[in-house]
């Protein structure tokens, strides 16, 4: 939750929606600021009960790091949640291996993680546990973690891209429900402004690190001298993660942008972000650049909420041709998709010098964005949840 990205937005939008007719608890294991979430995502969470789960102690936290911080955390949380006798549990935690603690469960998948990799690391934890007390060992082994996925009756994927990989990696079918995208319009008078929105996070040691590629975009813009002369600016907006790496990335970008027509908007509110979208003529996105989607599929955009948000305000997307972006941007109709930096530069300069083309694609982008509204998302989730609740009632 502290990163306040797309997955977090999906979570709080769904919590707000369901709280109108159900008793909803939002479980978390780090302190959350309700007002900050409301301001960031434009939601009202007064009917949602925030429930903070206990965290594991320092000894087990060290062991958790040995295998990616998943198994001990998940089992510890499972034991707490199981006592609550929940009717329905919806898991929206990326890379979770949490066994469903309720009678019925729905697993909302941003992107499937490598289950085999999780279990290969389990032996490391087992060896580390050998010197701990039997009671701690028991607390970690009360759940058969190899069956966690089968404990959920339904899997929901946020895009066809993610659903395809669910089938390839997990051999399971997933229902596609696109995440909620807000209408950030209407457009104001467009400025010579290129916008990129994405969280500032840096942990490149992780196999599935989801880099928003701000460094790549900054380097591309710095070489576009013609745009500089014509008064174009590049704006970065997004939340800075709580880690030291994230803060270092933000500081590094600011330093590298010195002397360029580049502006940063860190930790903006929902309304501040909306104003940026309304002013931006072009939208850039490059998540996944430099990595093969067949080898590192998780490093590519799983859907791309910010791209569609920009489209809703009339920003013309110029985005990498991979991942979920292929489902949101139609080449030459409502934006452009590029394969390399040369094509990114060429398409951007084409739009910058051809206002008629920019206006045509802008109008088409607004129309296309309506396929991914909050209402479409909540309707899709209501359909799936309704089917589950019928089985509970029966």
CATH topology of the largest domain: Rossmann fold
| N-to-C CA distance | 35 Å
**Oligomeric state of the chains present here:** single chain
The CATH architecture assignment of the largest domain turns out to be 3-Layer(aba) Sandwich
CATH class of the largest domain: Alpha Beta
Mean pLDDT: 87
* Major sheet: arrangement of strands: 9-8-7-10-11-12
Number of domains: 2
Structural class: alpha/beta
Helix segment count?
17
- Poorly predicted sequence stretches spanning 5 or more consecutive residues: 118-146
Helix fraction, binned, reads 40-55%
Largest sheet: 6 strands, parallel
Strand composition percent: 5-15%
**Gyration radius over CA:** 22 Å
Q: Please write the string of helix (H) and strand (E) elements.
A: HEHEHHEEHHHEHEEHHEHEHEHEHEHHH
CATH level-four homologous superfamily name of the largest domain: Glycogen Phosphorylase B
Descriptive report:
- The chain has helices at residues 6-18, 34-41, 58-66, 71-82, 115-120, 122-129, 134-141, 160-170, 214-222, 225-229, 244-256, 270-279, 305-312, 325-328, 341-353, 355-369, 374-393, and strands spanning 25-28, 49-52, 88-91, 104-109, 154-157, 175-176, 191-197, 233-238, 262-266, 280-285, 316-320, 336-338.
- The chain has 394 residues and is α/β, with parallel strands linked by helices.
- The protein folds into 2 domains: 53-180 and 374-393, no CATH class; 191-372, Rossmann fold (3-Layer(aba) Sandwich).
- The strands form 3 sheets. A 6-stranded parallel β-sheet has the order 9-8-7-10-11-12, with helices on both faces. The chain has a 4-stranded parallel β-sheet with strand order 3-4-5-6.
- α13 packs across α16.
- The radius of gyration is 22 Å and the shape is globular.
- Residues 118-146 have low confidence and may be disordered.
């Amino acid at each position: 939750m502290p990163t306040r990205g797309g997955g977090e937005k999906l979570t709080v939008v769904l919590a707000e929606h369901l709280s109108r007719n159900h008793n909803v608890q939002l479980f978390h294991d780090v302190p959350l600021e309700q007002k900050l979430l409301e301001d960031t995502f434009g939601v009202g969470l007064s009917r949602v009960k925030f429930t903070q789960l206990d965290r594991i102690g320092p000894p087990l936290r060290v062991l958790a790091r040995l295998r990616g911080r998943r198994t001990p955390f998940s089992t510890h949380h499972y034991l707490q949640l199981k006592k609550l006798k929940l009717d329905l549990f919806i898991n929206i935690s990326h890379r979770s291996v949490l066994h469903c603690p309720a009678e019925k469960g729905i697993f909302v998948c941003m992107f499937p993680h490598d289950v085999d990799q999780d279990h290969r690391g389990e032996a490391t934890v087992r060896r580390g546990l050998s010197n701990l007390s039997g009671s701690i060992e028991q607390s970690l082994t009360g759940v058969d973690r190899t069956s966690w996925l089968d404990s959920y009756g339904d899997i929901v994927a946020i895009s066809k891209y993610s659903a395809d990989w669910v089938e390839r990696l997990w051999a399971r079918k997933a229902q596609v429900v696109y995440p909620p995208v807000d209408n950030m319009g209407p457009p104001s008078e467009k400025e010579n402004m290129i916008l990129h929105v994405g969280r500032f996070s840096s942990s490149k040691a992780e196999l599935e690190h989801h880099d928003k590629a701000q460094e790549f975009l900054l380097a591309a813009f710095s070489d576009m001298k013609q745009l500089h002369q014509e008064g174009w600016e590049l704006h970065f907006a997004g939340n800075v993660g709580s880690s030291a790496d994230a803060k270092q990335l933000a500081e590094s970008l600011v330093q590298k942008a010195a002397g360029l027509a580049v502006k940063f908007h860190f930790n903006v509110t929902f309304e501040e972000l909306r104003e940026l979208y309304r002013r931006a003529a072009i939208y850039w996105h490059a998540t996944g650049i430099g990595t093969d989607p067949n080898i590192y599929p998780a490093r590519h955009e799983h859907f791309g909420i910010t791209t569609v948000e920009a489209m809703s305000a009339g920003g013309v997307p110029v985005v990498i041709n991979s991942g979920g972006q292929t489902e949101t941007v139609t080449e030459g109709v409502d934006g452009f998709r590029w394969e390399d930096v040369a094509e990114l530069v060429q398409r951007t300069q084409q739009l910058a010098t051809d206002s008629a083309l920019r206006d045509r694609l802008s109008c088409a982008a607004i129309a296309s964005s309506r396929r991914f509204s909050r209402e479409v998302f909540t309707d899709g989730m209501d359909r799936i949840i309704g089917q589950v609740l019928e089985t509970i009632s029966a």
